[in-house]
Design brief:
alpha+beta, 17 strands, nine-stranded antiparallel sheet, globular
Length: 296
Amino acid sequence: MSQSVTPELRRWIIEQASAGCTPESVLKAMLDAGWNAGVAEAALERTLLEHLSTVSPGALAQAAPEVREAVQGVVGQGSAVPVIDTSGSPRRIDAGDRWVDVIAHVNHPRVVVLGNLLSAEECEAIIESAKPRLARSLTVQTATGGEELNPDRTSSGMFFARGQTPEVTAVEQRIARLVGWPMENGEGLQVLHYRPGAEYKPHYDYFDPNEAGTPTILKRGGQRVATLVMYLNEPARGGGTTFPDVGLEVAPVRGHAVFFSYDRPHPSTRTLHGGAPVLEGEKWVATKWLREREFS
């Protein structure tokens, strides 16, 4: 059954924000009442955006702190993010040492599928350099700022330091030019290996601001603001990168990549994504996360 956003619902959202309720609590109340998550998130963001447009900057500045937090918590200021310029619908983009193909792009979420980002030789060299250091993949534990084993992530992996090999350096320079973001703002390149049945269930790459360990994580370079997943080989079946909020799945093709950015740490970015199970063969990917500031 479809759900429509009524004037009554919009008034209720504004009333809750004005009463000092956090965006998270308003969204939870909507979900508890049976609203579809995607519909609820979109209604919450659009309503507060429209409401904010009717409030003068001076009036908002004079509002109670909890009101400003409730409104701006969803609307946010929108951080500057890395971007791939797809204006004019280019078929190819100059990445410095090679031309990269633009296969597809989506505006919301901000997703660009790229071809020919890496050569076959670069893919093979990165895999061979990574193999001796593979270990069971960990995820960031935002409750403490550390790392942990996560049953949702069943790959093995490793991290290169920035510029650790000639191939890694070339790829990092290419990415920096392609997305207009400093190399030093990138985390080290992570290589992941998925065997048959291995997957990474849907998740967000930004760090949850409500978790106790997030301030510790952010000291190393601020929030993550973009992700680039590069495919180093081709599994026979499965292993695509999925975006459940928009029904998108990107096939893993050697040398191709999928780039997406997120200007705030909130589900309204629609950047929920995952690595679908490998059904046959194996999958190798390299992931580059970009931060707001220099990553140390």
